[in-house]
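User: What would this chain look like folded?
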Amino acid sequence: MSSYELFIGLRYTRAKRRNHFISFISLISLLGITLGMTALITVMSVMNGFQKEVRARILGVASHVQVSGMDGSLPDWQKVSKEVIQHPSVAATAPYVSAQGMLSHNQVVQGVVVRGILPDLEEGVAEIDQMMVSGELNHLLPGEFGMVIGTELARALGVFRGDKIVLISPQGQVTPAGILPRLKRFTVTGVFEAGHFEYDSGLVLIHLSDAQKLYRMGDDRVSGVRLKLHDIFQAPQVSNDLSVTLSVPGYISDWTRQHANYFRAIQIEKRMLSLILALIIAVAAFNIVSALVMAVTDKQSDIAILRTLGASPRGIMKIFIVQGTFIGVFGTILGVAGGVLLAYNVGEVVAFIEWTFNVQFLSGEIYYISKIPTDPQFEDIVTVAVVSFVLSLLATIYPSYRASKVNPAEALRYE
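Assistant: Here's the prediction, encoded as structure tokens.
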């Protein structure tokens, strides 16, 4: 592209036109791209923030990788722990016993998942000790049959720390009267709040030895071993590696498969919202087409003079491509700046709106969060900027082509 084409194209973007409506359409196009990009970057950042928040809450209780016995029972868990800890991506391990049960208190019965743990090792693979709202996780002592439950479960049963509660095991015992379920009285030693309804309403923690006795597993058997990784996104690779190197037969799963539905749903929502908001940028790009078509009509005499002075059709086309591209590039720059600025401060903006209009978008009692999470990612910002620029560039092709086909004689006939 020669210097005169760039000079004239940029001059057309800032020079006063006889028809101010063309300038207005160009301004609307620029603002449309800016607002569309700002909204798209902000929404993608908020969706990333929600995904990160949900992932943190789930993985605060669940394991990154889990090695379990093929028949629900894993012998010699110490050997398994020694083998898996040799993997450079594994940070900590802890055994567990997992079983079904029912809790009963004051004629209220709730089905639960019982997890037997070693509190000292469990702190290395989960963050339940940081989620305790009453009591402490290390109050679970062997032989004392203590229990830690979630806040929603405690509310449903109407129990508090120190209350007695009955755990009903589905493994029945044979008596002369028939098969009866096994009952054991536990003491509530603590209450945790994970911020995830599934865990807060259906998970109870007891000591590993108590779980082994209750479910008759023996002192050397557990359900499996839970692993914590240095990088959670390495979980699929670590699972594949352990499936090859582990000497003890077992089933290996990771969090990406155990909770795939949650993250798949968030990803689908993010893609659909991004597609819908991208239409704003597409509409702004169509406005560029309108603005350039009117600019070509308004500048026909100028085009004719340039053609008579020796400008080629390709050169005329480049002039209007420069004009349309300038609108797209400038709108993209403003959109990126506005999107990043809003994405990093969306919590403060929402708080100001809530305070001004006396409304509440996120109730902490319902959503367990009081501030909108945000996580702007460089890849998303670059993708939005590239899409905006490409759409703006494509929008200049037809008007520029039409300008290159202007006949100088016809354009100057009535001048």
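The chain has two domains: 3-56+262-412, 64-255. If you want, I can go into more detail on any region.
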